[in-house]
Amino acid sequence: MSKTTDGNFEYWVVDSYAMQREVLVEVKPSTGDGPAPVLYLLDGVDSPEDPSGWRSMAKVDTRPVANDNVHIVAPTGAYASYWTDWQNNDPLLGNYKWETFLTEELPDIVADQLNVNGKNAVGGISMGGQAAMHLAATDDMYDAVMSFSGNYSTMDPLGYQTLRLTVETRGAELDNMWGPHGSEQWRANDTISHVNDLAGKKVFFSAGNGALGPDDLGVYKDDVQSMAVGVVLERGVFEGTTAFERALNSAGVEHEVVYTPTGAHNWVNFMKNFDAGWNYIKGALD
Are 283 and 230 in contact (CB under 8 A)? Predict the structure, then answer.
């Protein structure tokens, strides 16, 4: 592993045996004293490298979380991946085994490089929010989760079409991810159907409703096409989020959900409730 420093961040280049490639990981170590928990943050569909969206768009190092005793770890380069293990190599994307990397490879590296207390949370936006909720529901390493404008169903028509469009508009082949729709892996990633697996964990999520506010107009300016896409995506997110809330309520799983009165599918909307989400989950990481 190699490491460089840029301002408040370290950049680690680590080897993934599962993917047979190097992964650039963006890290903001805690500035507190003693062992600290780890907050893993997952980007959206474009998942850029150097910097991640969490540094360039969210400016996470300027938010209150940066002053708490927590290590922030943001893997990068998971373009159109859904942060999952793909069944087959994709002609465009190659060998994707992101869930294995996140749950089996990266934690040992983090524990070796940072002073950790054994507690972990995972958070994400959009594609990363959906993945974060799945990971929290299926892996005991995570004590808390926060998701911003994610979808949580892979099996209903809305969830399926969102996944399909996300992957295929980026040039990849959807069947290479989890096989044909309805397969065992598609069902395993349908978090809404097994929300009881989130019981006992701190769960926070939020969504806008697709209505444009002044912040959204400032994001899109004259880009009408991007604005329309952002509105449609967040309206879908709103429907999926309310369905997820109903499923959690039905199962008696404690959670916190916040709906913003306006907001399309963009970073400004994603981050409106980030600080509230962190405040809600951080008690589980002591």
Answer: no
pLDDT in tens, 67-102: 999 999 999 999 999 999 999 999 999 999 999 999
Q: Which residue has the tokens 């992964």?
A: 23
Cβ atoms of 205 and 247 closer than 8 Å: no
User: What percentage of the chain reaches a pLDDT higher than 70?
Assistant: 100
Which single residue is written with the structure tokens 């990481």? Answer: 285
pTM metric for this prediction: 0.97
Contact 142, 201 (CB under 8 A): yes
Question: How far apart (Å, rounded) are the C-alpha atoms in residues 78 and 84?
Answer: 9
